[in-house]
Amino acid sequence: MKPFEYVRPSTLQEAIDLVVSNPKAQFIAGGTNLIDLMKHGIAAPEKLVDINHLPLKKIEKRDGFLRIGALVLNSEVASHKRVLDKHPLLVQALHAGASGQLRNMATVGGNLLQRTRCPYFYDRAFPCNKRVPGSGCGALGGINRMHAIFGVPVKPNPRSCIAVHPSDLSVALSALEATVWVLGPRGERQIPMADFHRLPNNRPEQDTTLSNGELITAVEIPDAVFPKHVHYLKVRDRASYAFALVSVAAALDIDQNRIKTARLAMGGVAHKPWRLFEAEKMLTGQVASETVFRQAAEVAMQGARAFEHNAYKLSVAPNVIVQALKIAAGLS
Questions:
Q1: What's the whole-model pTM score?
Q2: 166 backbone φψ class: left, alpha, beta (φ>0; ψ -120 to 50)
């Protein structure tokens, strides 16, 4: 690990100024991902700006929203009474995402900012456009069983990337149409969860739409319309904690067995949490049934494209969608 400077700012503005003034400075909170990246030589910040003492640790009810501070621990979110009562999808995603030890260290803001777990990103013996832009993508011609099937290039180019985003919480927040609040050198702004993460295009090294020096301050979730018929289903290599091969966050508003509103998002299939907008539209107004759910899954899979080793996702993913919807609707 390379030497670095450690600083602990006393205000939000001081933290932002420290990062803006040094392009090789990084914020650190729980450090559950960043420290690993530093140990592997993937990240080498000259300065770590510790934000743990900043006032971003509240979970509070706002008018029409639940606001979760960026420094709230994942374990605190998962055990909070209002989250348990009104947003159980978040609790399920957090429990699926990591062990109790990690949930006791990891923060909400840090969870959203996780880097990919693509093995070619971590292994510096192979090219990786996310690690070294323009070096190539080792996964395209390598072992790509964990990689993306949505948002991938039809004709890969030297700057392509088919890595997937690893956060389970982000998938649930996407389905619940959360908003990310950030503060930066140009002031405060709100980013819809659907726009927070980005597809690689020709800049795969950029995971999010954050600008330099912008700091996540909170996540806001609209008041619950999905306190009951929800399920987070995660398919992984082992029952203990592992990253998703395919996951689905399903949320339904059902009245007398008819679906009034549906929200669906997938993990493990794209460079960002993947919202299934067309499937949601198809489900709206339908009677909840396995037949309808299979039709929705067929719609959801339009545009999916597999590579040599991840073609199994083309059959696994629609089955996971159907099963998640059945469990959410109480049919399984």
A1: 0.96
A2: alpha
